[in-house]
Amino acid sequence: MKACIVSLSLLFGTVFGAVGDNCWPKVIFPGDYPDPSIMRDGRDFYLTWSGGDSRPGLTVYHSQDLIHWTALSCAAQTFANPIWAPEIVKIDGKYAIYFPAKGDFNPPRKWNVYRVTAPEMKGPWSMPELVVANAGIDPGVARDDDGTVWLWLHHGKRVKLDTTGAKAVGQIEGKRYRGWRFPEEWRPGTKNLTLESPKLFKRGGWWYMVSAQGGTGMPLTAHMAIVARSKSPAGPWENSPYNPLVRAKSASEEWWCTGHATLFDDVQGNWWAVYHGYRNSFMTLGRSILLAPIAWSKDGWPILDKSGRKPLPPTGSVVVGGDYDDDFEGDSLSLNWQTFGNDVSGKTRIAEGSLRLVAVEGASTSGEGAFPGTVLLFKPSAKSYAASVDMETCAGVRSGLVLFYDRGNYAGVTTDGRDFILRFPDGTRRCEPNPFGRRVRFHLRNDLNRLSLYAEGSSGRRTRLMDGIDVSQMRHGKGRCKNFRSLHIGLVAEGRGEASFGSFRYRVTALP
Q1: Which CATH number fits domain 32-304: 1.10.600.10, 2.115.10.20, 3.30.470.10, 2.30.140.10?
Q2: Could you tell me which residues come within 8 angstroms of residue 478 by beta carbon, excluding any fewer than 6 positions away?
Q3: Which residue of 63, 264, 311, 397 has the smallest Cβ count within 10 Å?
């Protein structure tokens, strides 16, 4: 088992050298890392993103060169509700992460904003505290020169906070910024701009707000990042004549649905943007985090820098998204693993060099045919990859290896020691005899959205269970799935008892 520091071994040149030093944007977090938020403190950059209903939540990564990143901590280990787009800041001498989540006491679609704080980014992090109820999503925080702290939210809403940024001290005001009216032909239904993700920063005598518009999903050209500026973080705002800052213009581009940007500078005075996007034709991977350089126009507006620029000098060897081994040593899971929701809390443990999943039985709340058991997820990073794991199941338990989107959408294999139960992307099932018994090694390959599965016995003999099954429609945006998730590699167990997993291997077989 690995420690809580992510130790991925993919080399810098493997990921970025193949596309050239001046090819932008660069993908720095390949895989599903939506709604990134980044801040700089001296030479140090800290980044987090939306965790949705996966846990641990709000993983904080650290870098000094914007390419090599190391996981430091998780700021919301046990928070019960799904976490959406966060804001990571330093305010009143503390590190803080603001995030929206549905409150237990609220009607549907009502969102509270919470925050967690810590003296250092490595923690310890406080328990989440309510900042403002029934507020909205996508918080952005800024402190004016006079000490006033403003919290901005989606749809141009704002509310004033106390001087520490801990609590709202006024009423939520709506439509204080109305966004940028993009050309009518870009997307039908432009009356709904889907204005989100206000991220504020100051440069010179101006405050700038970078927002997302157009919605995150399809059509692939709708999502964008826009810029406005004001003399105060309270507004009023004027839009940039160079909008949009970021937008995919056609299906031929490498990145689709690009937006949700944050702008920041480095110690050398260079400016950068991080934002998310779907890889062309690979929405199954989710939204990756992209890095691009920013230039400034003569009249003081940020624009994408087309001249090319090298990142800061490398300071480490950890690049997110490479090969990964886990032998489940030690006494805790690494931060590479996530639970799905909070219903498996306490149902995973490390013992004697193996991962034990306590199986869950009973009906799922996700509908007929949905998987009701315990799920542990690993996030893939590339168009093509392979994974394998040793597994032993006990009587009364079905366990296995799958590609998992949600409980109603998964594909793979489970076994009770007697049969292999195959689940296909359309929900159909097939049973085949299991000649290997309760101890088996499963091998999974996803080659360009084509799933193949094999089972291997202790003698080394293999049997093929699936071959080239199309999983490309297991995605959001005109696919068969809903909600903003992605395909993960899943270790699963269902029934009553325990399943044991060991010697997990993940290999990138095509560049991210």
Answers
A1: 2.115.10.20
A2: 218
A3: 264
pLDDT at residue 18 greater than cutoff 90: no
Strands 129-132 and 70-76, bridge-based pairing: unpaired
Q: Does domain 324-508 fall into CATH 2.60.120.200?
A: yes
Spatial separation of the C-alpha atoms in residues 467 and 453, rounded to whole Å: 7
CA distance 152 to 200: 9
Cα–Cα distance measured from residue 336 to residue 33, given in angstroms and rounded to the nearest whole number? 13
The phi and psi torsions of 391 (rounded to 5 degrees) equal: -145, 140
Q: Has residue 425 got a pLDDT over 70?
A: yes
In 3D space, the residue among 28, 27, 34 whose CA is nearest the CA of residue 485 turns out to be 34
- Distance CA(506)–CA(317), nearest Å, equals 19
- Nearest-angstrom CA–CA distance, 191 and 74: 39
How much is the pTM?
Answer: 0.91
- d(CA 218, CA 278) in angstroms, rounded, equals 11
CA 127 – CA 67 distance, rounded (Å):
30
SS3 call for 261: strand
Whole-number mean pLDDT of the chain? Answer: 88
Query: What is the percentage of the chain residues whose pLDDT exceeds 70?
Result: 90
Strands 129-132 and 111-118, sheet pairing: antiparallel
386 pLDDT more than 70: yes
